[in-house]
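Record pair follows.
FIRST:
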Amino acid sequence: MTNELPSNPKHFQSEPDNILELDISSTKNLQIGYHAETVFLLPSESSLLVIKEYIGGLSGTEYYAKVNANRFKTTIRYGRREEVNRETFVEVFLPENWHGELSLSSQYGHITTEHDWEFERFAAETNEGAITLKSIKAPRIHLVSPVKGIRLEKAEGFADLHSVSGSILARHILGGGKLATSGGSIFAAFSSLNTIVECNTLNGDIEIALPDSQGMKIDGITKTGEIDAKPEGLTLKIKPGNVKNITGILGEKPFQDVRISTINGNILLR
């Protein structure tokens, strides 16, 4: 399962149309939203937030990002747009010592980072783009990508990941999470658990890797698919309508609930 970016918009423009610099040292909550631009999150080489806008040659202050800031919250939104241009992008250079609440959004573009980050809270949302992240540490990680899906290499915290027709790939989760999609598949590997896990899809397979030597209460169900469970000690039952349900307890107390559900897909536990 892969959620690759369809193309790299950096191929289309080498020089930014606008550069924005802000001191966010006192900002607790930072919200950055764009239209069709792919958002690249990068570490800043200075103590300032720097945003470089590559917006297809648009020139004039009405096209540049608008800033609304008070003592604790800073909101940055894209300027005037006359069309959906998927070849545009922005580079968000964030100071690595800033660990507040960060929210990134792009209506039609992708959101991506290849770096490790730590925040008080992290959210990323796109309507038609993909979300691809390397490593996020935050008590709550909220990602929404209805169409293209989500790829998250590492999450430390509660991973709240949602799609509709896309797939969800989370390779290394420490904490817990709620992963849900309708028309895609789910793959998640949990290295440790300290809270509930819920994985739900309608028309896709679910593959879950569970941590060794940790207490868990397992409850998995599929209506038309098959269940393959590697851990010993689980019980598979066939219910009316050929519904398959696997349940059981693994490890020792305290137990964390692991709930898995698909309608037209298979379940693999390992």
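SECOND:
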Amino acid sequence: MRLRVAVCDSQPDALSRMERYCIRESSRRLVSCVTCYNNIRELRDELNEGKEIDLLILDIDHAFDKTVAEDEGKNGIDFACELGQKYPFLQIIYMAEQDAEYAQTIFLSPVQPAGFLIKPVKMDYVYKLLLLAIERLKNESQERLVVQGKLRHIFCNWEILYLESKGHITEIHMASGKVYECKDKISELEQRAGKEFVRCHQSFLVNLRYVEGFGKEKRKREPRESPKESGSKTQRDVLVLENGEKIAVSKRWYGGTKIRLAEYFGENRKYNN
């Protein structure tokens, strides 16, 4: 596994030095590519257009473009907080002068850095931080789901309530209530999703974190069914979610769903409506 690195620093010498360091680490198979930016606005624009990076090395003294009114007075730490909300898995390493004015405010920020480099930066520190970043990336790759819509999106597993297949698209229902669409098949997403997801139906993949119970609900008769045909099928198995939604459990996936519930929650938990 290699890192896709971006470096943002308004000082040309520092930017060039860091680029050389990262290129050197590509020979040790730590870095796959490095992109350098001398202003925050350019980096922000490329990220908004869908550029993907794993690690950002950011000068915290770097000031925003003062021509943009809402950015006036902001620095690199403010930008890191903005990125943390949009890209929760992005790792950020701060750079600063030894007597940087903003250094002491780092630990008051909601976004904690993956490392800190003091200028002039030493190569051995960069190497150690890159190794740590790769280890974090390996661990975090098990906790996120990458999907393809108009743009490629990365969701934290804990944000997802369930996924529902509808024709040629898959809807991603978030715990927040928002719904996104992607082109990936639900069978493909099942392979990529974490172990906390269970396939309970041809059309549903549910996050076990949000399952409150397993039970039955009264089944509505299909339009083409006669009362006699539906008489033996008056109830259906469902997963009951924290928000009250009920997700159908089909006969095909019934056994596997029960096993996954027992594995995830423990054998002693009882599932009731």
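COMMENT: DSSP finds seven helices and 15 strands in the chain.
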